[in-house]
Task: inverse folding
């Protein structure tokens, strides 16, 4: 089974921007809301994938990804997704032997900025950069699937 192990954090400030060595625009839309797994189509620049991810909260969950033609991905995003696409720019930042993925959301999820780190094991140690805020790994509201159905801009002030 393909297993993804990652932890998610809020980002504080803009200090990470100077260290970003690459970026890419993403648009992704969801084709189901079963509660067991998410099925999404994602466009990353000029590449597209179909992705299946277990609807499990936490640092580890099953994930499968398959390349699909870009034109078909655009058609799916335009015609078959349950909600408007989640759009963001992903930045990659190297820090202390790890690569962080920082997602800066646009549209209905702005001004949310989230950092993720992929790990080899759930208990792997890593150095926290100064711009890392609160951990949100176990907060389902910050998962892209949840942001598609209830965007950050629609959260109540006490969320």
Result:
């Amino acid at each position: 089974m393909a297993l993804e192990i990652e932890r998610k954090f809020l980002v504080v400030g803009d200090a990470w921007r100077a260290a970003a060595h690459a970026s890419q625009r993403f648009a992704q839309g969801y084709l189901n809301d079963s509660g067991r797994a998410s099925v999404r189509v994602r466009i990353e620049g000029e590449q597209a994938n179909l992705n299946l991810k277990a609807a499990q909260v936490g640092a580890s969950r099953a994930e499968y990804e398959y390349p699909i033609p870009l034109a078909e991905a655009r058609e799916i995003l335009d015609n078959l997704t349950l909600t408007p696409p989640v759009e963001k720019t992903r930045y990659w930042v190297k820090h202390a032997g790890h690569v962080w993925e920082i997602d800066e959301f646009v549209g209905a999820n702005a001004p949310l900025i989230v950092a993720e780190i992929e790990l080899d094991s759930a208990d792997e140690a890593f150095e926290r950069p100064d711009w890392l805020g609160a951990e949100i790994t176990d907060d389902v509201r910050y998962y892209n699937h949840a942001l598609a159905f209830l965007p950050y801009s629609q959260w109540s002030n006490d969320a």
In short: The chain has a mean pLDDT of 93.
